[in-house]
Structures are given as structure tokens and as C-alpha cells.
Design brief:
GO terms for molecular function: sequence-specific DNA binding. The protein has 152 residues and is of the alpha+beta class. It is 34% helix and 20% strand.
Length: 152
């Protein structure tokens, strides 16, 4: 469904990389019946088109002692939204910012190294954001399911 814009070989390559992004071009080629060079060219084309954005290591902050993770729901005045997003974008503890529908205009994820660092983010940044009508914070207690990117 999501991969309808890709030919069959590209779909197979993407599915294999989703399962294991560290899979070699040779391995992929063996599994789908094309050469390592052909796989490399196709992967590079997918990257160039922006279909494959990055390869990364995902760290689970809850497995690191003392790390605190939370979500903020922020409702802003419409004219304050660009300034608020720019302020949040510059903070290292902010890991994700989403523009959303509904009452809240922004859904923001933050990870801090400690309760003290999270409190500092709240007091020094969140409480001082211009044009905020309402801001709520939800502490993440445990991760039950977390899928990164598109799953097929």
C-alpha cells in the first residue's frame, strides 16, 4: 500500500532494510536475486529521492539511569506558533516536534538526563514560551510499543 510508487525490487530492498538496516548490499542482492552493485545503485537512488532518509541507532532513554522522557501538548495563539517552534527547535532536550490538529497545536517530545534537567526545561523554556494558551506535560513511565518510520 505505502510502497505502491516503487517497483517490486525497490519494495523488496526497502522491506529488507526495515528489518535490518545493517544488511550488506551483497546480502540483499542474494535475497532478491540481483547483484551487489545493482542493490547499491537502487539504494542510492532511494536515498536521493528522499524515500530512505537516514540510518541511525535508536537509544532507549528509559534504559539509561536517571533519564526522563515526556510529551508536551502545547496550545498557542496562531501568531505565536512560528516563534514557539523556533525556540523549541533550538533545545537539545527536545527530540521531536509535531504540528497537530485539535486543541493543541504542537505535540513535543523531550528527553532529559534527570528530573532536575526536565524541571529546568519546564521552568526556563516551556513556562516562558510566548503566546501559549495551555501547556500540559505527560511523563512517560514505560515504552510499550514504539515504531520508527514506516512499517509495512
Amino acid at each position: 500500500m505505502f510502497l505502491d510508487g516503487l517497483d517490486e525490487l525497490d519494495q523488496k530492498i526497502v522491506q529488507l532494510l526495515i528489518q535490518n538496516a545493517r544488511m550488506s548490499y551483497s546480502e540483499i542482492g542474494q535475497k532478491i536475486g540481483i547483484s551487489r552493485v545493482a542493490v547499491k545503485m537502487r539504494v542510492q537512488a532511494l536515498e536521493k529521492r528522499g524515500i530512505i532518509e537516514e540510518y541511525t541507532t535508536i537509544i532507549n532513554p528509559q534504559k539509561i539511569s536517571g533519564a526522563v522522557s515526556c510529551y508536551f501538548e502545547i496550545e498557542t495563539a496562531p501568531d505565536a506558533l512560528p516563534e514557539v517552534t523556533e525556540i523549541l527547535r533550538q533545545k537539545d532536550t527536545i527530540t521531536q516536534i509535531y504540528r497537530v490538529t485539535g486543541k493543541s497545536r504542537l505535540h513535543v517530545h523531550a528527553v532529559a538526563s534527570s528530573n532536575e534537567e526536565m524541571e529546568e526545561l519546564i521552568c526556563q523554556t516551556m513556562d516562558k514560551l510566548p503566546g501559549v494558551v495551555e501547556c500540559s506535560c505527560n511523563l512517560i513511565l514505560s515504552r510499550i510499543k514504539d515504531i520508527k518510520g514506516l512499517r509495512l
